[in-house]
TrEMBL record:
GO molecular function terms noted in the UniProt entry: FAD binding; oxidoreductase activity
Keywords, comma-separated and alphabetical: FAD, Flavoprotein, Oxidoreductase
Family: Belongs to the oxygen-dependent FAD-linked oxidoreductase family.
Keyword Flavoprotein: yes
Organism lineage string: Eukaryota, Fungi, Dikarya, Ascomycota, Pezizomycotina
Domain of life of the organism encoding this protein: Eukaryota
Gene3D superfamilies assigned to the protein according to its UniProt record, in alphabetical order: 3.30.465.10
One Pfam short name: FAD_binding_4
Domain called FAD-binding PCMH-type: residue spans: 35-214
Protein name: FAD-binding PCMH-type domain-containing protein
Keyword Nucleotide-binding: no
Amino acid sequence: MAPIPGISGEQSEVGAASYEEWRQQYATSTHEDDHDMRPGHIVRALNTNDIKVVIAYAKDNGKAIAIRSGGHQYSGASSTGQSNIQLDLRNTFKSATEDLYFIEIANKTHVRTSVSWSLLEFNSFMNTNHLFIPHGQCQSVCIGGHVQTGGYGQLGRSFGLIGDHIVALEFIDHEGVERKITPTSHADEFFAWTGGSPGNMGVLTHITLEVHRDADYQGSRGLKSLHVYTPEALRKILQILAEMNDDEDFPRNYDLCVSVISEDYPLDGLFDLDHVSRHRSGLSRLDGSSLISLIVIYAQWVPFSSSDKPDEAWFDKLKAGAVFNDDGVKPMSDLTAEWIFRKDREYDYPYVKRTYLTSATNLSQNGWWRDSTLVFVIDNFYQPGDGRREAAEAWAAVNEEEGIGKDKYFSTQDRRVLWGSYGDYNLHSIWPCYYDDETKYQRLQKARKAADPHGIFTPNPFSVLRAD
């Protein structure tokens, strides 16, 4: 594909020196062939005019546009194939004065941010200004992906998702028109943007969020723990999580994330190892990788009134038997930074991933945990060759056979999230896994038809099918 006229930003295509580096995304190592992650042309947009030129070119030439910022979608849905265009927004909107700032409005704090900031950059800005918001945990995911797929993370139980905090969305539509919508001005369109079919409604450029202030939640507390992994130790800790889930009266103040990591995991992405080694040696190598399998606990308590007090017994149960505990009172903007994984990815290998959700409420009795605000993610990275992928797939199949479906212990339904998609790449054929009911899905289909009548925002099958 020849260079697109009128573009001021950089461009690349198959065979160019920059092409291989530019096309890389989180899923490239796994899905570059079966999901066709080799775009015919890549545009690194410099401004809104570049975006408008790409939209007009795509419409005139029968092309589709895949939009990426962080490029972290598990199945590679933020990429596309050789007949289409990759629009790269990683560095498009990064003015410190125009693309990331806060506004005080009627005793509320709003932050206007662009889609180009990484989570780490965004969190740093929030921390500097003593502000916070629920968000994910991967440092290189960008804010555009967060707001279009929910924004799941450590604060899900106490504060919900980042998607719950969206005040306004700014984007460029299929006609090349700059628009701004709110939940009241364009209810159906706003609904579809915030988790309906990410990247398939237009080119999102900026978001306004209602955020929280440290000063309103003084006394917040966080715990990071390491336990040596054994099945018995894990069951004991997961029982605490299951009991939280099953108790409808368990206070909203508490958030808990439990992870199991294998040997050779980049432990320095989770902990300050200088701090850890002062208390406990023999957990990591010089390169920061773990020496043994470990259980990682992130626990948080936040006050919602001046009378709220943390339950010391809850924290004590989580700390019991740990080889390392870091427990202290910190501002919420500091705690949200603590929960971020400080690496771009866990291993430089292909993977088999699964992301499950459940709405069961009997998990402290049947052996598992729940809630649609809690997510169970399994990452199985493997070295290519010698049947290792087949072994990883077989392991995932056993988990699904035992845990997912009628009368199964984790979830009676196959419930998934768009950011952690897996399996069938045709979203329409498996929409019940991602959406609550047919009425909701049909509402999204109508919104997609209005937003993308020419198909220029349908770069791959992982899109809500437009209504007839």
